[in-house]
From TrEMBL:
Family indicated by similarity: Belongs to the Rieske iron-sulfur protein family.
Species per Swiss-Prot/TrEMBL record: Arthrobacter subterraneus
Compartment list: Cell membrane
Highest taxon, organism lineage: Bacteria
Membrane topology value: Multi-pass membrane protein
Pfam families per record: QcrA_N, Rieske
Spans annotated as Disordered: 1-45
PANTHER family referenced in this protein's UniProt entry, alphabetically: CYTOCHROME B-C1 COMPLEX SUBUNIT RIESKE, MITOCHONDRIAL
Main location: membrane
Name of the protein in its database record: Cytochrome bc1 complex Rieske iron-sulfur subunit
Membrane-spanning parts: 53-76, 88-109, 152-172
Matching PROSITE patterns: RIESKE
Functional description taken from the UniProt entry: Iron-sulfur subunit of the cytochrome bc1 complex, an essential component of the respiratory electron transport chain required for ATP synthesis. The bc1 complex catalyzes the oxidation of menaquinol and the reduction of cytochrome c in the respiratory chain. The bc1 complex operates through a Q-cycle mechanism that couples electron transfer to generation of the proton gradient that drives ATP synthesis.
GO cellular component, one term: plasma membrane
Amino acid sequence: MADHSHGSPENAVTVAKPGQGGVQKFQDPGLPPHRPRLADTDPRAEKRAERQVGVLFLISIFGTLLFFFGYFFIPLDETIGTLRLQNLLLGLGTAFAMLGIGVGIVHWAKTLMPDHEVAEDRHEIRPEKDRADAEKIIGDILEESGIKRRPLIRNTLLGAGILAIFPAIAIFRDLGPLPGDVLRETMWDEGVRLTRDPSGTPIKASDVTIGSAFHVIPEGLNEAEHKLEEKAKAVVLLMRLNPESLNPSPGREDWGYEGIVAYSKICTHVGCPVALYEQQTHHLLCPCHQSTFDLTQECKVIFGPAARPLPQLPISVDEEGYLVATSDFQEPVGPSYWERG
C-alpha cells in the first residue's frame, strides 16, 4: 500500500499551524502601467477627437432647434398629417438634443480627458483644509478636462447645454395656468344634445342598447373656437344597463334615463381617457394605471390609484327622443388637485 502520510494535514506545508509565526502579507502590486491613447501621442488625432466632440454638441444644438421648429412653427390644424409631422420633429429633435450631449461627453471623456488611475489615502476631516482641497480638486478637474484650452468643445457644450433646457421649460409652460375653476365648467348645459365622437351626430335613446357604449361629445363642440381644450374637459362615456342594476344615491334618481347613464371619460387619477367598458361586470377601466370604476355604484373606485368616482353627467331626452344634458357636471372633472374642494 502506498504511503500517503506526506500529504496529511499534519505534514502539508500550505497549512499554517499555531506557533509557526505570522502569515506573510501580499505585496501591493501597484497600479497597472498606463497605455497611452492615440490622442495622447498624436496631435492630429487629438484635434480630430476635439472636432468630433464639437460636432456631437452641434448635433445637440440642431436637435433642440428642430424641436423648437416643430413645437412653435408647425400649425395645429388637427389633420393627421400635420400631427404626425409635428410628433416626428419633436421626437427627432429631442433624440438628437439628448444623444448629442450624451455621446459627446462620453467621447470627450474616452479620448481627451486623462485616463490614468489614481490612488489616494484617506485623511482626517479638517473643514478649512478640506475646502482648500476641494478647490484644488475642482481646479485640477477643469485643467485635466481641457475645457479651458479647448474653446470649440467649451463653446459648443455651453450652447448645447443652455438650449437643451428650453424645451423642458416650453413643455411645462404649455401645461397652462393653475386649474382654478377651469375644470368646473364645460360645454355641457341644460338642453345640450349628446353627440357621437368625432362625427357630432346626435344620439337617440333608442340607439343605445343594453351593453353598448358610446364615446360622446356635446353638440357644437366641433365648431368651437378652442375645440381640443373643450373636448379634453367635456368628453363622456354613455352606456345602457338594466335599470335594476343601477343603485343611484338619493337625489340622483333622475340623472339617467331608462338605464342610460353618462360619466366623464377623464380618469380622476391623472386624467387619462377611460375607454374600456367590461359589459359583463359593468366596470370601466383606465388603461394607464388600471383604475377600475363600478358603473352600478355611480362609478365608485374599486381598484387602482384613483381617489374619486368619475363625475356623472345628468341626462334626459327631448321631445324628439334625443339624449340631452340637464345641466353641467356637478363637480370638477379630471384628477384631484390642490385647489379642488
